[in-house]
């Protein structure tokens, strides 16, 4: 109870708002089959371009309307949450693993190893993120697995830089020197003593990067290089509805709003977690 009270005490309006949206998003992803009123790919040509229920010609059977193939927009939004959470979480995990390992090695070993890894970081930063992702997807092919892999491979740089900076400071502390004095191996010092001291920064950064990964997946899909059209995603919905934007605005508006709210809410929650984990940002000594 004390832990819950502490969390509520330090939560702001934006944090609470973000947390509510994130929880709703997670529930939609987990219980999509139960919450969706229709199947994601149920086609009914006789009900093409049915507007949202509050507009003239709308139907309560299709609260947010239907698309050009008669598929229910609300159902596709709910099922699309599954793809967004899988892509966002798994790509961050891949990027975290790569970035943490390279950051630990670079910061701890120093010398030419550090120089090589940092030049790799500079090389990655010299390419526009979306351009590099497009090139890799074009080589590997369009699939959900490949999109996750590409976003993870191209997203490790901020984690590596953050971890390296933390390791450069932590490795000079007394407890690390004591571990060396008693004869601990480098791997033991790295993963048992240094890693627990720097992992918080990477996890907080990963939380905030989830929104970027979700947005990147939607961008790739919108450009036709992401998740195949047969899989309902917010990016696919925006891409397929863009040619009807003047006659059926709801095809792009609702997935766009969902994408905006989720990315914004994840950033709010990430900022909140960062403030809790670092008392200095709250002005606490």
Can you walk through the features of this model?
There is one protein chain. The chain is an all-alpha fold. The protein has a single domain, classed as MetI-like fold (Orthogonal Bundle), CATH 1.10.3720.10. 71% of the residues lie in helices and 0% in strands. The chain is built from twelve helices and no strands. It has helices at residues 2-10, 13-30, 32-35, 73-109, 111-126, 129-140, 144-154, 157-170, 174-181, 186-222, 234-241, 250-277. Helix 4 (73-109) runs antiparallel to helix 5 (111-126), helix 8 (157-170) packs antiparallel against helix 10 and helix 10 (186-222) packs antiparallel against helix 12. It is elongated, with a radius of gyration of 22 Å. The protein starts with a helix and ends in an 8-residue tail after the last helix. The mean pLDDT is 81.
């Amino acid at each position: 109870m004390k832990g819950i009270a502490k969390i509520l005490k330090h939560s702001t309006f934006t944090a609470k708002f973000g947390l509510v949206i994130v929880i709703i998003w997670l529930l939609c992803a987990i219980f999509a089959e139960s919450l969706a009123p229709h199947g994601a790919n149920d086609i009914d040509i006789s009900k093409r371009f049915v507007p949202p229920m509050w507009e003239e010609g709308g139907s309560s059977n299709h609260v947010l309307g239907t698309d050009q193939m008669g598929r229910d927009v609300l159902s596709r939004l709910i099922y699309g949450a599954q793809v967004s959470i899988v892509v966002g979480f798994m790509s961050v995990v891949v990027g975290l693993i790569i970035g943490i390992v390279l950051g630990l090695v670079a910061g701890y070993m120093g010398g030419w190893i550090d120089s090589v890894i940092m030049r790799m970081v500079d090389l990655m930063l010299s390419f526009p993120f979306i351009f590099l992702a497009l090139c890799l997807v074009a080589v590997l092919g369009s699939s959900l697995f490949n999109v996750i892999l590409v976003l993870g491979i191209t997203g490790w740089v901020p984690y590596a830089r953050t971890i390296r900076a933390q390791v450069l400071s932590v490795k000079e502390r007394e407890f690390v020197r004591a571990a060396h004095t008693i004869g601990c191996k480098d791997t033991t010092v790295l993963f048992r003593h240094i890693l627990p001291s720097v992992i918080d920064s990477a996890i907080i950064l990963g939380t905030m990067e989830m929104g970027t990964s979700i947005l990147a997946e939607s961008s790739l899909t919108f450009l036709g290089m992401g998740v195949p059209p047969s899989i309902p995603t917010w990016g696919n919905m925006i891409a397929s509805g863009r040619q009807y934007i003047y006659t059926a605005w709801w095809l792009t508006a609702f997935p766009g709003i969902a994408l905006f709210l989720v990315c914004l809410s994840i950033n709010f929650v990430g900022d909140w977690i960062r403030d809790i984990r670092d008392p200095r940002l709250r002005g606490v000594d």
